[in-house]
Amino acid sequence: MLNIEKYGAVDIGSNAIRLLVVTVIEQKGKDTLFKKTSLVRVPIRLGAEVFLEGRISDKNAKRMMDAMLAFRLLMKTHGIKRFRACATSAMREASNGPEIAENIEKSTGISINIIDGEDEAAIIASTDLKTLIQDDKVFLYVDVGGGSTELTIFANGKNITSQSFKLGTVRLLENRVDEDIWNQMETWIKKETKEFHRISLIGSGGNINTIYKKSGKKIGKPLSYLYLSSYYEQLKSLSFEERITEMDMNPDRADVVIPATRIYLSAMKWSKSKNVYVPKIGLSDGIIRSLYNEKIAAEMEVK
């Protein structure tokens, strides 16, 4: 007999706000299945103003409220049993972030957890990567967002270490990243990977997912450093308008994809990685997995 429930994850990022609905299917004596049922993405670029002005404008605060009201109704319609909303760089750096979160909770009942970089990295690392992380391989997990990049090293099938850097696509577009941040990330990657050989990247985030989809690669096959660097040069050779019309990109993707690709290529160069795997997972998936793990832990306590 199957136990079927739906979980919801709200990811309030610097480039977009997302609602992920996952159907969790428990089977007696077998692994639990996590089936992505719905994903709604609203391109409210909070980081563009927060990283410049230090606060979220009234206009975008209203857009956030509307999005949360819509998400609340969608979760009700889906029959969501458990959900969690997490906000990252833009909300945690906005001077009025806590105030907006409080207003949203009063109006929608959705409590927003404003998490720091370490929490973000830990949640992302909790995702199920068993299909990729073999005991005899080493991986540098790179999640590129609008406001920050989360890095995690996996070796011997275990999470070795994680670090978050204020290096994101929207920050780069708004020229809000000092060269020192690049140097810090380079130093960290080189230091933490120097004892390992044959490291591969695992990339997550909307930009690398877009690149992977357009590559035509079969699921499970990695992108090479050569392919990604060639794609990067192609992106830079086209105007913003041409990336929309000729490469069939959404307007809110056509600008951030260039700094995102630069970050992935830099991480590959510094870790001497030749390939990047793209399993299409991220913070939302980690939230779902955390909710499920909490449920299992609670059931064990009751027993």
UniProtKB/TrEMBL annotation:
Any single GO molecular-function term of the entry would be: pyrophosphatase activity
Q: What is this protein called?
A: Exopolyphosphatase
Q: Give a single Pfam family match.
A: Ppx-GppA
Lineage of origin:
Bacteria, Pseudomonadati, Bacteroidota, Flavobacteriia, Flavobacteriales
* Annotated signal sequence range: none
Species: Aequorivita sublithincola (strain DSM 14238 / LMG 21431 / ACAM 643 / 9-3)
> Start and end of every Ppx/GppA phosphatase N-terminal domain?
41-291
Q: Which InterPro entries match?
A: ATPase_NBD (IPR043129), GppA/Ppx_hydrolase (IPR050273), Ppx_GppA_N (IPR003695)
